Automatic annotation (TrEMBL):
<feature type="domain" description="GHMP kinase C-terminal">
    <location>
        <begin position="411"/>
        <end position="473"/>
    </location>
</feature>
<dbReference type="InterPro" id="IPR020568">
    <property type="entry name" value="Ribosomal_Su5_D2-typ_SF"/>
</dbReference>
<keyword id="KW-0808">Transferase</keyword>
<dbReference type="Pfam" id="PF08544">
    <property type="entry name" value="GHMP_kinases_C"/>
</dbReference>
<dbReference type="GO" id="GO:0006696">
    <property type="term" value="P:ergosterol biosynthetic process"/>
</dbReference>
<dbReference type="InterPro" id="IPR016005">
    <property type="entry name" value="Erg8"/>
</dbReference>
<dbReference type="GO" id="GO:0005777">
    <property type="term" value="C:peroxisome"/>
</dbReference>
<dbReference type="GO" id="GO:0005524">
    <property type="term" value="F:ATP binding"/>
</dbReference>
<keyword id="KW-0418">Kinase</keyword>
<protein>
    <recommendedName>
        <fullName>Phosphomevalonate kinase</fullName>
        <ecNumber>2.7.4.2</ecNumber>
    </recommendedName>
</protein>
<dbReference type="InterPro" id="IPR014721">
    <property type="entry name" value="Ribsml_uS5_D2-typ_fold_subgr"/>
</dbReference>
<keyword id="KW-0753">Steroid metabolism</keyword>
<dbReference type="GO" id="GO:0004631">
    <property type="term" value="F:phosphomevalonate kinase activity"/>
</dbReference>
<keyword id="KW-0547">Nucleotide-binding</keyword>
<dbReference type="InterPro" id="IPR013750">
    <property type="entry name" value="GHMP_kinase_C_dom"/>
</dbReference>
<dbReference type="GO" id="GO:0010142">
    <property type="term" value="P:farnesyl diphosphate biosynthetic process, mevalonate pathway"/>
</dbReference>
<comment type="pathway">
    <text>Isoprenoid biosynthesis; isopentenyl diphosphate biosynthesis via mevalonate pathway; isopentenyl diphosphate from (R)-mevalonate: step 2/3.</text>
</comment>
Length: 514
């Protein structure tokens, strides 16, 4: 049996803090999802041909997409004082920047770690890295298969093909890792952060497989993270920023690594020296290039972002929907920030007010977490599932639920004000109507547009009761103004996870399907 390493990362929902979280003064509430992205690394067997001792193959296949257009093959060659990574099938399948950069930066870091451990002989460290890529048995290299839970991509067509309506109750009928008909660029994503979860699981599975790091069996933001986990975080942030061509806030990578938490970003200057390096596909093994190493900049002690523990209270549920209004997602961030610059005084007022409401939401949700053990907690949630939160507050838990509802409305008001002032449809009127109607369903606390907003998605925070969920499902399936397709995902606290093949439903079948 060839050696195999499987790592998964959760998707994300930025419940509160969109735009604000780009600025270190403010933080955001990021909730990880139960839907995950998997990266499976397996040793390739030795080849029958006389394989070159100074070369290894690394192939990465997006398992649920057409394999002819979704397998990227690279060779890693040791040549003098360099390791060179080259894609061999670019003419046939094109590039996948997120994969190519993740591979290169992971190998670069792996090389630097080995060099550090071995006391500084560059070429020897390069040889050792190549040996690890080829595995104990001297195989051809590594085969990676990446697979995302169905939620990451729109499943409207797949449901229609099974004659199923786009309802929550239909989703379990889809095969896990359902095969999608078109290549990735022609596939609609749902906003769970496929590229961040891909990069995070990919770099971690490779570092782990090459014995560069060792991970705890599960990672959440509650315990203090290990140095290896923090290093994975900085590497994934770096690779993701390079592939995106910009330094975003990084909340998506942070939740892919640590799970649900309150996120405060790292200073852009942490990554500037690495982002400014000229692009290259080689790793120099010469010790005279010590100044251009990545490791010193990725050292966790240099990173000033923070993750503060936070989770949704027991008995509440996050429901998500992919809203396909048929619009392009324009570059909202640039326009909003332009407006913020132009009208600094007004924007600061809005930013501060919105931040206060976001932090109030965090305080109320944490207040509910503290009450989870109270004798009346479950009964109060049952009460809330039937009422529309009007009327007399019957307990402190009820007070908190009512306040959560009010605070979600305040946050939405601020986002609409931002929309109006900046001219960017963060919560456009179509979404307002959908959110208002959804918030009117008994047992729904409220909702909003996650992250940057727009027409793409909505989230609801509800009492986790089958009646409430099916009432939401009914409303959404009868909604005519836009097509609303629910996702299966719930909130989940965990971040990166080591997986075993048997424990993930459908994974074994998906890995053997070509
Ligand atoms: N299953 C996959 N296999 C390989 N690459 C993928 C896969 N899913 C996404 N990608 C990569 O991520 C890119 C999409 O990244 P982009 O940053 O545009 O979207 P995103 O913000 O992650 O989207 P969303 O949040 O909607 O998932 C794709 O072009 C592809 O390079
Ligand atoms: C607008 C912004 O704050 C959030 C974007 O979130 P999302 O990708 O729409 O979930 C940008 C960022 O944080 O990088």
């Amino acid at each position: 049996m060839p050696r195999q390493t499987i790592i998964s990362s959760p998707g994300k929902v930025l419940l509160a803090g969109g735009y604000l979280v780009l600025d270190r003064q403010f933080s955001g509430l990021v909730v990880a999802t139960s839907s995950r992205f998997y990266s499976c690394v397996t040793d390739l067997p030795p080849s029958d041909e006389i394989s070159s001792t100074n070369r290894a193959t690394i192939s990465v296949r997006a398992g649920q997409f057409p394999s002819t257009s979704s397998t990227w093959v690279y060779t890693l060659t040791l040549s003098g004082e360099e390791l060179v990574l080259e894609q061999t099938n670019e003419a046939e399948v094109g590039k996948n920047k997120f994969i190519a950069i993740s591979l290169l930066k992971t190998l670069e870091l792996a090389y630097e770690k080995i060099e550090q451990e071995q006391g500084g002989d560059g070429v020897k460290a390069g040889e050792e890295l190549l040996r690890r890529v080829k595995g104990e048995t001297g195989g051809q290299g590594l085969e990676v298969v990446v697979l995302a839970d169905n939620d990451f991509y729109s499943q409207r067509e797949q449901l229609a093909a099974l004659s199923l309506p786009p309802r929550l109750s239909s989703l379990p009928s889809l095969q896990p890792f359902t095969q999608l008909p078109r290549p990735i660029p022609q596939t609609n994503k749902t906003g769970l952060g496929s590229s961040a979860a891909l990069v995070t699981s990919l770099v971690t599975s490779l570092l782990s497989h090459l014995s560069i790091i060792s991970l705890p069996s599960s990672s959440t933001s509650s315990g203090s993270p290990s140095t290896d986990l923090l290093l994975v975080h900085s590497l994934a942030q770096y690779a993701h920023c390079l592939a995106q061509g910009k330094v975003g806030s990084g909340f998506d990578i942070s939740s892919a690594v640590f799970g649900t938490h309150i996120y405060r970003r790292f200073s852009r200057s942490v990554l500037t020296p690495l982002m400014d390096k000229p692009p290259t596909s080689t790793i120099s093994l010469s010790s005279s290039t010590a100044t251009s190493k990545a490791l010193p900049w990725l050292d966790p002690s240099e990173w000033d972002g923070s993750t503060t523990p936070f989770r949704l209270p027991k008995g509440l549920r996050l429901i998500l929907a992919d809203v396909d209004a048929g619009t392009d997602t324009p570059s909202f961030v640039g326009k909003v920030l332009e407006w913020r610059k132009r009208e600094a005084e007004k924007a600061t007022e809005v930013w501060k007010g919105l931040d206060k409401a976001n932090m109030q939401l965090e305080k109320l949700l944490s207040g509910l977490v503290e009450r989870e053990g109270d004798a009346d907690y479950d009964a109060t949630l049952r009460w809330a599932a039937e009422r529309k939160f009007e009327g007399h507050a019957e307990s402190e838990t009820a007070d908190l639920l009512i306040e959560v509802r009010a605070t979600l409305l305040v946050i939405r008001e601020y986002l609409r004000e931002m929309s109006e002032l900046s001219g960017v449809p963060i919560e456009p009127p179509e979404q307002t109507r959908l959110l208002d109607a959804s918030s009117d369903v008994p047992g729904v606390l409220g909702g909003g547009v996650p992250g940057a907003g727009g027409y793409d998605a909505i989230f609801l925070l509800t009492i986790d009761s089958p009646d409430v969920i099916s009432a939401v499902d009914d409303l959404w399936s009868s909604w005519t103004e836009m097509s609303v397709c629910p996702l299966l995902a719930k909130q989940s606290d965990g971040g990166l996870r080591i997986e075993s093949l048997e424990d993930v439903k459908g994974l074994k079948e998906a890995l053997t399907r070509v």
